[in-house]
Amino acid sequence: MQNDRRKFIKKTAVVVGATAVVGTTSLLAKNSSYEADSSGVVVGHSSKKEILYHETKAWDEYYKQAK
């Protein structure tokens, strides 16, 4: 009986501790360097260069037909 009670308390403590860590981590993540402007678009800083277009033969043909 005592052993079952100790196991229950130990498991409960682990779950409560893990929940506290996850909650704290999510709160810190929300307060990061990202900010939303008035239209709701998130503006942040990234070290990656965003490449939207690679100049290829297929794109050249597409743009010629689109003009």
Give a quick precis of the structure.
The chain has helices at residues 2-30, 57-66, and strands at residues 35-36, 42-43. The protein is mainly alpha-helical and 67 residues long.
How would you characterize this protein structure?
The protein is mainly alpha-helical and 67 residues long. The chain has a domain of 33 residues. It has two helices and two strands. A two-stranded antiparallel sheet has the order 1-2. The longest helix has 29 residues.
Helices and strands in order, then pairings?
Layout: H1 2-30, E1 35-36, E2 42-43, H2 57-66
Which descriptors would you attach to this protein?
67 residues; mainly alpha; two-stranded antiparallel sheet; 6% strand
Determine the number of helices (DSSP H or I, runs of at least 4 residues): 2
- Sheet-strand content, in percent, reads 5-15%
Q: What is the total tally of β strands?
A: 2
Question: How would you state the average pLDDT, rounded?
Answer: 77
Task: Give the helix proportion (percent range).
Answer: 55-70%
The major sheet is characterized as: 2 strands, antiparallel
Alpha carbon gap, first and last residue: 82 Å
Q: Which sequence of strands runs across the widest sheet?
A: 1-2
Structural class: mainly alpha
Indicate the overall shape: elongated
Radius of gyration: 26 Å
What is the element string, with H for helices and E for strands? HEEH
